[in-house]
Design a protein that fits this description.
The protein is an alpha/beta fold. 29% of the residues lie in helices and 21% in strands. It has five helices and nine strands; from the N terminus they run E-E-E-H-H-E-H-E-H-E-H-E-E-E.
C-alpha cells in the first residue's frame, strides 16, 4: 500500500507489540526516499509478542493531530491479528480512551480496522470503528485475502489526504486498487495502482 501513495500525500507507520514503534514522529510526504524508508521499516517488523492496541491507537491519533490543519481528513488504517494483551486490555477502556482522544483533537479522523484471522474480537473492532467514523472488516485466512481487502476498500467512505498506517504481525498485501466514492461527504477519491494518471485527481494508497 505504501508504494503507490501520491507524492503529495502524507503518511506514517506505527508498529506495535508489547510497545509501539513509530517510523516517523509526524506525517511526512510520500517522496520516493520516504516510501523506500517506510518499506524497509515494515520489512523489519518481526514477532515480539504482545498486542498493545491502546498505545498504538493513541499514538496514531496523535500523529494525525500533529498536522496544523483540521480541514484535511486523516485516515487511520488499523491492522491486527489478535486481541489486546498488553497495557490497557479492557475493551471498554480502549473504546472510551480512543474515542475521547479522537474527539478532542484537531484532526478530522476516520478509524478503519482490518482484523486478520479467527483470533480477533470482531465485535470489539467493529464497535471501535463505528464509534470513530470508520468501518471494520474481518479477513479470513482460508479465502482470497487480497479480494477481501479490495472489498473492504470499496466500503471506505471518507475521503482523506493524510494517512497513518498501523501494522501488527500480519501480512502486508500489495497491489490493491479501487476507485472509491464517499456518499457521506460527496468526495470522489481515487486509489491508483499504476503510475500516476490525470484521471486520479484526489487519492493515493496501495
Amino acid at each position: 500500500m505504501i508504494s503507490s501513495l501520491d507524492r503529495n500525500a502524507k503518511f506514517s507507520i506505527v508498529g506495535f507489540n508489547y510497545a509501539t514503534t513509530a517510523w516517523r514522529n509526524k506525517l511526512v510526504r510520500a517522496t520516493n526516499y520516504n516510501v523506500e524508508e517506510a518499506r524497509s521499516f515494515i520489512s523489519r517488523i518481526s514477532a515480539g509478542g504482545g498486542t498493545n492496541m491502546h498505545a498504538a491507537l493513541l499514538d496514531a491519533i496523535e500523529l494525525c493531530n500533529s498536522e496544523s490543519s483540521s480541514t484535511v481528513p486523516c485516515m487511520i488504517m488499523f491492522m491486527t491479528d489478535g486481541t489486546a494483551t498488553v497495557g490497557v486490555t479492557e475493551e471498554s477502556r480502549i473504546l472510551a480512551d480512543v474515542t475521547k482522544s479522537r474527539q478532542q483533537g484537531n484532526a478530522n479522523i476516520a478509524l478503519n480496522v482490518i482484523g486478520f484471522g479467527a483470533g480477533i474480537s470482531y465485535s470489539f473492532l467493529s464497535r471501535l470503528s463505528v464509534l470513530n467514523s470508520g468501518i471494520a472488516r474481518q479477513i479470513f485466512e482460508d479465502t482470497d485475502a487480497a479480494f477481501q481487502m479490495q472489498g473492504f476498500f470499496d466500503e471506505v467512505t471518507f475521503a482523506f489526504f493524510d494517512i497513518c498506517f498501523i501494522y501488527t504481525l500480519v501480512q502486508v498485501f500489495q497491489g490493491l486498487t479501487k476507485n472509491l466514492c464517499s456518499p457521506l461527504l460527496q468526495y470522489r477519491m481515487q486509489i491508483p495502482f499504476a503510475p500516476y494518471n490525470k484521471e486520479f485527481q484526489l487519492f493515493r494508497l496501495v
